[in-house]
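Input sequence (263 aa), recorded before submission:
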Amino acid sequence: MKKIYKKIGISLLCICFSPTEVLSDDRLKLPRDIKGIEILVAAGASYDNTADLGAKELMEFSPTFALMTDRFYVDVHTVSYRFYPSEDTILTIIGNQDPLPNESDIPAYLNIKSGESYDLGVIAEKQFGEYRLEAKVATDITGTHNGMLFELATGYDYNSDKSHFEVTLGTRYRNEKRNNYLYGVSTKESNSRLRSYEAEADLTVFLHANYTYEIYKNLGVTVGGTFESLSNTVKKSPRIKSNAQYKELELFAGLIWQFSIYD
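Predicted structure, C-alpha coordinate format:
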Protein backbone atom coordinates (compact mmCIF):
# COMPACT_ATOMS: atom_id res chain seq x y z
CA MET A 1 0.00 0.00 0.00
CA LYS A 2 2.89 2.39 0.79
CA LYS A 3 4.27 1.81 -2.71
CA ILE A 4 0.90 2.74 -4.21
CA TYR A 5 0.73 5.99 -2.22
CA LYS A 6 4.30 6.77 -3.23
CA LYS A 7 3.42 6.28 -6.91
CA ILE A 8 0.39 8.55 -6.59
CA GLY A 9 2.41 11.22 -4.80
CA ILE A 10 5.13 11.27 -7.47
CA SER A 11 2.51 11.41 -10.23
CA LEU A 12 0.70 14.33 -8.57
CA LEU A 13 3.99 16.21 -8.36
CA CYS A 14 4.42 15.71 -12.10
CA ILE A 15 0.93 17.12 -12.67
CA CYS A 16 1.35 20.14 -10.42
CA PHE A 17 4.69 21.20 -11.87
CA SER A 18 4.05 20.47 -15.53
CA PRO A 19 5.06 23.71 -17.32
CA THR A 20 2.75 23.43 -20.30
CA GLU A 21 -0.21 21.49 -21.62
CA VAL A 22 -1.26 19.62 -24.70
CA LEU A 23 -4.82 20.46 -25.83
CA SER A 24 -6.02 19.97 -22.27
CA ASP A 25 -9.30 18.05 -22.31
CA ASP A 26 -10.80 15.54 -19.89
CA ARG A 27 -11.65 13.33 -22.89
CA LEU A 28 -8.01 12.97 -23.95
CA LYS A 29 -7.24 9.28 -23.28
CA LEU A 30 -6.68 5.94 -24.94
CA PRO A 31 -9.77 4.31 -26.55
CA ARG A 32 -10.41 1.77 -23.77
CA ASP A 33 -12.10 1.55 -20.39
CA ILE A 34 -10.19 3.09 -17.49
CA LYS A 35 -9.30 0.62 -14.75
CA GLY A 36 -8.88 2.02 -11.26
CA ILE A 37 -6.52 5.01 -11.08
CA GLU A 38 -4.50 5.77 -14.21
CA ILE A 39 -1.78 8.19 -15.25
CA LEU A 40 -1.72 9.73 -18.71
CA VAL A 41 1.50 11.16 -20.16
CA ALA A 42 1.33 12.81 -23.59
CA ALA A 43 4.06 14.53 -25.55
CA GLY A 44 4.42 15.80 -29.09
CA ALA A 45 4.58 18.83 -31.33
CA SER A 46 2.01 21.61 -31.06
CA TYR A 47 1.19 24.65 -33.15
CA ASP A 48 -0.58 27.64 -31.60
CA ASN A 49 -1.58 30.89 -33.29
CA THR A 50 -3.80 33.48 -31.58
CA ALA A 51 -5.16 36.91 -32.45
CA ASP A 52 -3.55 38.51 -29.39
CA LEU A 53 -1.32 41.43 -30.32
CA GLY A 54 2.34 40.55 -29.91
CA ALA A 55 1.74 36.79 -29.63
CA LYS A 56 3.84 34.89 -32.16
CA GLU A 57 2.99 31.69 -33.99
CA LEU A 58 4.37 28.93 -31.80
CA MET A 59 5.63 25.52 -32.90
CA GLU A 60 6.99 23.70 -29.89
CA PHE A 61 7.32 20.50 -27.89
CA SER A 62 4.35 20.13 -25.54
CA PRO A 63 4.09 17.60 -22.71
CA THR A 64 1.11 17.03 -20.43
CA PHE A 65 0.40 14.86 -17.40
CA ALA A 66 -2.98 13.81 -16.05
CA LEU A 67 -4.45 11.62 -13.31
CA MET A 68 -7.79 9.97 -14.00
CA THR A 69 -10.39 7.43 -12.99
CA ASP A 70 -13.58 6.49 -14.84
CA ARG A 71 -15.20 9.64 -13.38
CA PHE A 72 -12.38 11.94 -12.23
CA TYR A 73 -9.75 13.84 -14.26
CA VAL A 74 -7.06 16.34 -13.24
CA ASP A 75 -4.13 17.97 -15.03
CA VAL A 76 -2.21 21.19 -14.47
CA HIS A 77 -5.08 23.36 -15.79
CA THR A 78 -8.26 21.27 -15.44
CA VAL A 79 -10.18 19.32 -12.79
CA SER A 80 -13.44 17.52 -13.59
CA TYR A 81 -15.82 14.94 -12.14
CA ARG A 82 -18.60 13.16 -14.03
CA PHE A 83 -22.01 11.91 -12.95
CA TYR A 84 -24.24 9.54 -14.93
CA PRO A 85 -27.93 10.24 -14.17
CA SER A 86 -28.85 7.75 -16.93
CA GLU A 87 -27.07 5.56 -19.45
CA ASP A 88 -27.03 8.24 -22.16
CA THR A 89 -26.75 11.37 -19.97
CA ILE A 90 -23.57 12.81 -18.46
CA LEU A 91 -23.22 15.74 -16.06
CA THR A 92 -19.70 17.07 -15.51
CA ILE A 93 -18.52 19.55 -12.90
CA ILE A 94 -15.40 21.17 -14.28
CA GLY A 95 -12.90 23.75 -13.09
CA ASN A 96 -10.16 25.21 -15.22
CA GLN A 97 -7.71 28.07 -15.37
CA ASP A 98 -8.77 30.72 -17.88
CA PRO A 99 -6.38 30.33 -20.87
CA LEU A 100 -5.14 33.91 -21.15
CA PRO A 101 -2.06 34.83 -23.20
CA ASN A 102 1.19 34.63 -21.25
CA GLU A 103 3.85 34.75 -23.95
CA SER A 104 6.90 36.65 -22.75
CA ASP A 105 7.26 38.41 -26.11
CA ILE A 106 3.98 40.37 -25.73
CA PRO A 107 4.84 44.08 -25.25
CA ALA A 108 4.60 45.27 -21.63
CA TYR A 109 2.55 48.36 -22.60
CA LEU A 110 -0.40 46.09 -23.50
CA ASN A 111 -0.83 45.23 -19.80
CA ILE A 112 -1.84 41.67 -20.69
CA LYS A 113 -3.59 39.76 -17.90
CA SER A 114 -2.25 36.25 -17.53
CA GLY A 115 -3.99 33.32 -15.86
CA GLU A 116 -5.49 35.41 -13.06
CA SER A 117 -8.97 33.86 -13.03
CA TYR A 118 -10.40 30.37 -12.55
CA ASP A 119 -13.68 29.05 -13.93
CA LEU A 120 -16.12 26.65 -12.29
CA GLY A 121 -18.80 25.22 -14.53
CA VAL A 122 -21.23 22.43 -15.39
CA ILE A 123 -21.48 20.51 -18.67
CA ALA A 124 -24.66 18.61 -19.56
CA GLU A 125 -24.28 16.01 -22.30
CA LYS A 126 -27.00 13.93 -23.96
CA GLN A 127 -25.97 11.06 -26.21
CA PHE A 128 -27.93 9.74 -29.18
CA GLY A 129 -25.90 6.74 -30.25
CA GLU A 130 -22.77 8.12 -31.90
CA TYR A 131 -24.08 11.69 -31.74
CA ARG A 132 -24.34 14.04 -28.76
CA LEU A 133 -25.61 17.43 -27.66
CA GLU A 134 -23.72 19.48 -25.07
CA ALA A 135 -24.45 22.60 -23.04
CA LYS A 136 -21.97 24.33 -20.73
CA VAL A 137 -22.18 27.22 -18.29
CA ALA A 138 -19.17 28.54 -16.35
CA THR A 139 -18.26 31.54 -14.27
CA ASP A 140 -15.12 33.05 -12.77
CA ILE A 141 -14.97 32.17 -9.06
CA THR A 142 -11.95 34.33 -8.16
CA GLY A 143 -13.77 37.67 -8.35
CA THR A 144 -11.27 38.84 -10.98
CA HIS A 145 -14.00 39.72 -13.48
CA ASN A 146 -17.04 37.58 -12.49
CA GLY A 147 -17.69 36.93 -16.17
CA MET A 148 -19.92 34.18 -17.56
CA LEU A 149 -19.38 31.70 -20.38
CA PHE A 150 -22.07 29.70 -22.18
CA GLU A 151 -21.58 26.99 -24.83
CA LEU A 152 -23.97 24.94 -26.94
CA ALA A 153 -22.50 22.25 -29.17
CA THR A 154 -23.17 19.09 -31.12
CA GLY A 155 -20.70 16.29 -31.61
CA TYR A 156 -19.99 12.94 -33.21
CA ASP A 157 -17.99 10.08 -31.69
CA TYR A 158 -16.69 6.97 -33.42
CA ASN A 159 -15.26 4.13 -31.33
CA SER A 160 -13.60 0.85 -32.19
CA ASP A 161 -11.40 -1.56 -30.22
CA LYS A 162 -8.26 0.44 -31.02
CA SER A 163 -9.36 3.92 -32.07
CA HIS A 164 -11.53 6.88 -31.14
CA PHE A 165 -12.51 9.85 -33.28
CA GLU A 166 -14.50 12.83 -32.09
CA VAL A 167 -15.56 16.11 -33.62
CA THR A 168 -17.44 18.90 -31.87
CA LEU A 169 -18.99 22.00 -33.44
CA GLY A 170 -20.52 24.66 -31.26
CA THR A 171 -21.14 28.27 -30.40
CA ARG A 172 -19.61 30.10 -27.43
CA TYR A 173 -21.08 33.17 -25.68
CA ARG A 174 -19.02 35.43 -23.39
CA ASN A 175 -20.83 38.14 -21.48
CA GLU A 176 -19.76 41.78 -21.25
CA LYS A 177 -17.88 41.42 -17.93
CA ARG A 178 -15.75 38.61 -19.27
CA ASN A 179 -14.96 40.25 -22.61
CA ASN A 180 -14.26 43.62 -21.09
CA TYR A 181 -11.66 42.06 -18.81
CA LEU A 182 -10.08 40.05 -21.63
CA TYR A 183 -10.19 42.61 -24.43
CA GLY A 184 -11.25 45.93 -22.94
CA VAL A 185 -8.90 48.72 -21.88
CA SER A 186 -9.90 50.88 -18.93
CA THR A 187 -8.86 54.52 -18.59
CA LYS A 188 -6.28 53.50 -15.97
CA GLU A 189 -4.82 50.83 -18.29
CA SER A 190 -4.67 53.06 -21.36
CA ASN A 191 -1.52 54.87 -22.40
CA SER A 192 -0.08 56.65 -25.44
CA ARG A 193 0.10 53.35 -27.35
CA LEU A 194 -2.98 51.65 -25.95
CA ARG A 195 -6.31 53.45 -26.40
CA SER A 196 -9.20 52.88 -24.02
CA TYR A 197 -11.84 50.42 -25.24
CA GLU A 198 -14.99 48.90 -23.78
CA ALA A 199 -15.74 45.42 -25.11
CA GLU A 200 -19.25 44.04 -25.42
CA ALA A 201 -20.63 40.52 -25.13
CA ASP A 202 -20.05 38.32 -28.18
CA LEU A 203 -20.84 35.01 -29.84
CA THR A 204 -18.21 32.87 -31.59
CA VAL A 205 -18.11 29.51 -33.35
CA PHE A 206 -15.63 26.80 -32.36
CA LEU A 207 -14.60 23.45 -33.82
CA HIS A 208 -12.66 20.70 -32.06
CA ALA A 209 -11.53 17.38 -33.51
CA ASN A 210 -9.35 14.58 -32.18
CA TYR A 211 -8.26 11.12 -33.31
CA THR A 212 -6.53 8.59 -31.05
CA TYR A 213 -5.23 5.14 -31.97
CA GLU A 214 -3.76 2.57 -29.56
CA ILE A 215 -0.73 1.11 -31.34
CA TYR A 216 0.34 -1.10 -28.44
CA LYS A 217 -0.83 -1.84 -24.91
CA ASN A 218 -0.82 1.46 -22.94
CA LEU A 219 0.68 3.36 -25.91
CA GLY A 220 -1.14 5.35 -28.56
CA VAL A 221 -0.88 8.18 -31.07
CA THR A 222 -3.14 11.22 -31.14
CA VAL A 223 -3.75 14.13 -33.50
CA GLY A 224 -6.14 16.98 -32.93
CA GLY A 225 -6.98 20.60 -33.36
CA THR A 226 -9.16 23.45 -32.12
CA PHE A 227 -10.40 26.52 -33.99
CA GLU A 228 -12.41 29.53 -32.75
CA SER A 229 -13.79 32.36 -34.87
CA LEU A 230 -13.17 36.06 -34.20
CA SER A 231 -16.10 38.32 -33.29
CA ASN A 232 -16.33 41.99 -34.26
CA THR A 233 -16.15 43.20 -30.66
CA VAL A 234 -12.87 41.33 -30.14
CA LYS A 235 -11.46 42.31 -33.54
CA LYS A 236 -11.93 46.01 -32.70
CA SER A 237 -9.95 45.67 -29.47
CA PRO A 238 -6.52 47.35 -29.39
CA ARG A 239 -5.21 44.14 -27.80
CA ILE A 240 -5.85 42.23 -31.05
CA LYS A 241 -3.78 42.04 -34.25
CA SER A 242 -5.21 44.27 -36.96
CA ASN A 243 -5.03 41.52 -39.62
CA ALA A 244 -6.41 38.71 -37.43
CA GLN A 245 -8.84 36.36 -39.20
CA TYR A 246 -9.64 34.04 -36.28
CA LYS A 247 -9.35 34.07 -32.50
CA GLU A 248 -7.27 30.95 -32.07
CA LEU A 249 -5.97 27.92 -33.94
CA GLU A 250 -4.30 25.02 -32.11
CA LEU A 251 -2.95 21.80 -33.64
CA PHE A 252 -1.24 18.87 -31.95
CA ALA A 253 0.25 15.49 -32.85
CA GLY A 254 1.95 13.21 -30.39
CA LEU A 255 2.15 10.03 -28.32
CA ILE A 256 0.03 8.98 -25.33
CA TRP A 257 1.27 6.65 -22.61
CA GLN A 258 -1.50 5.67 -20.21
CA PHE A 259 -1.06 3.13 -17.42
CA SER A 260 -2.75 2.02 -14.22
CA ILE A 261 -1.21 2.72 -10.81
CA TYR A 262 -4.03 1.13 -8.82
CA ASP A 263 -6.59 -1.39 -10.11
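Checked by second reader. The chain has a mean pLDDT of 86.
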